[in-house]
Design brief:
- β7 and β8 form a beta hairpin.
- It is built from 14 helices and 26 strands.
- The two termini are 102 Å apart.
- It is flat, with a radius of gyration of 58 Å.
- Keywords: Metal-binding, Nucleus, Repeat, Transcription, Transcription regulation, Zinc, Zinc-finger.
- One of its GO terms (molecular function) is RNA polymerase II transcription regulatory region sequence-specific DNA binding.
- InterPro entries: NFX1_fam, R3H_dom, R3H_dom_sf, R3H_NF-X1, Znf_NFX1, Znf_RING.
Length: 849
């Protein structure tokens, strides 16, 4: 087809050139070349030259002008472009109306099918594989590689539709699957066998087309279909799923099997009978409405549980039975039924009682009826005279023995509630029942097996029902209930047909999940029965909570993230920004007072140069709030150093200045002169030398004076002993002084933290990973500080952890580097401050080597 289109295009160009008089013309003075429809026009007399007239072959042979300008590219005529555009538009309209099968056939004929794995065109002679779900055509080798690389326990997914397949394709078959390795035939569709398709995808009729790609067309076979009531039949195509309904009444028998359906002809089951029946109780006092069912039609009477109260045959007394079926019976006082006195010892003379209302004669003998009391072999009898009512209570006692044998005693017959041989004690049985879960707890128990009469009520494996069997040992059996409805997966593709046992899980489905997802990314999981879909793990580009930075590796389900930087959002106070790490939601954590800022005030105090540090507040800082900033105070010579709060330091300074002011006032009273700036405190800034010198300070001052007087260079003024560092440490310090300084600084900080700690007995520090020689250095240095050191982990990740005890660790008087410098003569001496002893020194100097 491409060759034919190319030939048609060449013929069309030749016709256009012939109709326009050729393409090149001989010029005059300029010697240029011109094209019709191009850029220049030649003189008319020159265009008419030549014996052939308008553009003959002879004129074309004579045209050989020489021009220095390059020849411009020939442009296509506008008419040809419009024709091609119309053809492409027509072809696009035809393709848009084609089915998937026709589109695949067109693409196979023109070799435009592209493999989704390798992105190469599928050739007619190559082995292919077609997905049975989306009908995409791929290379067989590419499909096999794809399946092997992405296979899991559930199978492998089609790269186009994500349909899961169990088996990996190995062989090349035609589209209908009848022929293996089909040969390419130009007269047939590529990769087809040329025979009838014969597939039965949606119905029982085979496809009548030749072997083809894509889905089979709708079945065109004609079948007879009946309407819902079955009276009308109509021929329809097999592929048509329309329901047939006539205009007649359905008239199918309803569930009561008496009434019929009065709806119009419909598909499916008829509704239940909506008629109601009126049932009457046996005594005729109550009536109720019931639905029309087979069981309600069979039983038209019921018991209202009230007294019958119907007139007996004597027409003088009423029935005392509960509402019952059948006749009430004869009156119990009828003369035909009562033939003797109440005790039965004297017969009634015939004719003495003529109706049930006549009194029953009573004799004067003892009643003698057996009472429920007494032993089983010697029952007590009534000692009263013949009487109509029940016998009076017995005044005797009965020997009672319970069933279990726990009770054996004499009980008054009045208190005896049962027979003597059926007495029950109050002792509860403590044995376990047959289920081994419950105790018997029955009073006066005589059971041997102790059968549990409770219902099990344990949840069955189905999770919906409970076991209704008697309580038993072991696990419950499976739920015996079944459902006669189809059980489908979420998308409806997989079906389990009834009967379906209760508790059956939804069938597994290999189709992609069809639920609505919060994102638009491709679904990578199958249809599932769980209420929530797995989170989408596609990497997306998201900003952090505070919009500080953007990352491209955030899972879709996460939404956003914390970058770890300070939030820096302005707080409601307007003076601070949020210092929390990048977070979501509001910056204030106090839900009760979200507008209250909890940060410290950063304003400078008026009394000192420190920050306020009080909770954020409006207006000026409170002057009465003491400053808690730590400042370093020293003695006059600088030997003693302590850390105190600014508030305590100010109080101490005011105390000292007050004492100085008092002494100055005394000096003024004696007639001496006083510097006003010292009294008013405006001459110089507040000094931090508020500590008093001790004996050690005096010793150092004396040593400094001796060193100056004796002109000793670089003297050791300290009274402390020099630490005895090992030869290994001295040698290593000369080789790597930077490491020695780092270890000394870390250990010094560790000891200071341990000494300043109030609630912890010790502090620890973990050194980075080191080799054996450096770990040896750390261990030796720790011993000089009184610090315990232990090495952890295996090589090459072994490191040392140092632990300083608050009471056992110390700071050496000199570091290892200072000892080496002193040994080498590189020492630095501070000139003594003579003001510490009340003398004035105009200058100070430093002496060094």
């Amino acid at each position: 087809r491409q060759q034919r289109n190319h030939q048609q295009q060449q013929q069309h160009q030749q016709q256009q050139q012939q109709s326009n008089g050729g393409g090149r013309w001989k010029g005059n003075a300029g010697g240029g070349r011109f094209r019709n429809g191009g850029g220049g026009r030649g003189p008319k007399n020159e265009r008419e030259q030549g014996p052939m007239g308008n553009g003959g072959e002879e004129n074309q042979r004579q045209v050989e002008p020489v021009s220095s300008a390059p020849e411009r590219k020939e442009r296509r005529p506008n008419g040809y472009q419009r024709q091609r555009a119309r053809q492409e538009k027509l072809e696009a309209n035809i393709i848009s109306k084609c089915s998937q099968r026709e589109k695949l056939i067109r693409e196979l004929d023109s070799c435009r099918v592209e493999c989704l794995v390798c992105c190469e065109l599928v050739r007619p002679t190559q082995s292919v594989w077609s997905c049975l779900n989306c009908y995409h055509i791929l290379h067989l080798n590419c499909t096999t590689k794809w399946a092997n690389s992405s296979r899991s326990d559930d199978g492998w997914r089609c790269p186009a539709c994500q349909n899961v397949s169990k088996e990996i394709p190995r062989d090349y078959y035609c589209f209908c699957g009848k022929q293996k390795n089909p040969q390419y035939n130009r007269s047939d569709v590529a990769h087809s066998c040329g025979e009838l398709c014969g597939r039965e995808d949606l119905c029982e009729h085979p496809c009548t087309l030749l072997c083809h790609p894509g889905p089979c067309p709708p079945c065109q076979a004609m079948v007879q279909r009946s309407c819902g009531c079955g009276r009308t039949k109509k021929p329809l195509q097999c592929s048509q799923k329309d329901d047939i309904a006539c205009e007649a009444i359905c008239a199918k028998p309803l569930n009561c099997e008496i009434h019929t359906c009065q709806q119009k002809c419909h598909v499916g089951d008829c509704a239940e009978c909506g008629e109601t029946l009126e049932h009457e109780c046996h005594c005729g006092k109550q009536k109720k409405q019931v639905t029309c069912t087979v069981s309600n039609l069979d039983n038209t009477r019921f018991s209202c549980e009230a007294v019958c109260d119907a007139q007996l045959s004597c027409n003088k007394h009423a029935c005392t039975k509960v509402c019952h079926a059948g006749p009430c019976g004869e009156c119990v006082l009828s003369p035909s039924l009562v033939t003797s006195c109440p005790c039965g010892k004297q017969a009634i003379v015939k004719g003495e009682r003529e109706s049930c209302l006549d009194p029953i004669p009573i004799c004067k003998a003892v009643c003698g009826k057996q009472l429920p009391c007494g032993s089983p072999g010697a029952r007590h009898v009534c000692s009263a005279k013949c009487h109509l009512d029940e016998c009076p209570p017995c005044n005797k006692t009965t020997m009672v023995k319970c069933r279990c044998g726990h009770m054996d005693q004499q009980i008054k017959c009045k208190q005896l509630q049962t027979r003597a041989d059926d007495a029950r004690c109050k002792k509860r049985c403590t044995r376990m029942r047959s289920c081994a879960k419950h105790k018997c707890n029955q009073e006066c128990c005589i059971d041997y097996d102790h059968i549990c009469t409770k219902t099990c009520s344990q949840a069955l494996t189905c999770g919906r029902h409970r076991c209704d069997k008697p309580c038993h040992r072991g696990s419950c059996s499976t739920c015996h209930r079944v459902s006669f409805d189809e059980l489908t997966c979420e998308c409806g593709a997989a079906v389990i047909f009834p009967p379906v046992p209760c508790g059956t899980s939804k069938p597994p489905c290999n189709k992609p999940c069809s639920r609505q997802h919060p994102c638009s990314h491709p679904v990578l999981h199958n249809c599932h029965a769980e209420p929530n879909c797995p989170p989408c793990v596609v990497l997306t580009t998201q900003h952090c909570y505070g919009k500080h930075e953007q990352r491209k590796t955030i899972p879709c389900y996460q939404g956003s993230f914390s970058c770890g930087l300070a939030c820096a959002k302005p707080l409601p106070c307007g003076r601070h920004t949020c210092i929390k790490p990048c977070h979501e939601n509001g910056c204030q954590s106090n839900a009760a007072e979200p507008e209250v800022c909890r940060q410290s005030c950063t304003k400078t105090r008026t009394t000192c140069a420190h920050q306020c540090k009080a909770p954020c507040h409006e207006g000026d800082c409170p002057p009465d709030l003491p400053c808690r900033e730590m400042v370093e105070v020293t003695c006059e010579c600088g030997n003693r150093k302590q850390m105190r709060t600014c508030h305590d330091f100010s109080n101490e300074y005011r105390r000292i200045t007050s004492a100085q002011l008092a002494s100055s006032m005394q000096e003024m009273q004696r007639g001496g002169s006083v510097e006003l700036s010292d009294i008013l405190g405006t001459g110089k800034p507040k000094s931090n030398k508020t500590l008093e010198c001790n004996d050690e300070c005096r010793t150092l001052e004396r040593n400094r004076r001796l060193a100056i007087g004796l002109q000793i260079r670089n003297p050791d003024l300290s009274s402390k002993l020099q630490p005895n560092y090992s030869e290994f440490l001295r040698t290593y310090a000369k080789k790597d002084p930077a490491l020695i300084k780092m270890i000394h600084d870390r250990l010094s900080e560790l000891v200071k933290l341990a000494k300043e700690s109030k609630h912890q007995k010790s502090r620890s520090f973990s050194f980075p990973v080191m080799n054996r020689e450096k770990r040896h250095v750390v261990h030796d240095m720790c011993s000089m500080f009184g610090i315990d050191s232990v090495a952890y982990d295996a090589e090459p990740n072994r490191n040392v952890v140092a632990t300083a005890d608050r009471f056992k660790s110390w700071l050496p008087s000199m570091s290892l580097l200072e000892v080496i410098q002193r040994e080498n003569g590189q020492r630095r001496v501070i000139v003594p401050n003579l003001n510490a002893w009340g003398r004035t020194a105009n200058s100070s100097s430093s002496v060094a080597k």
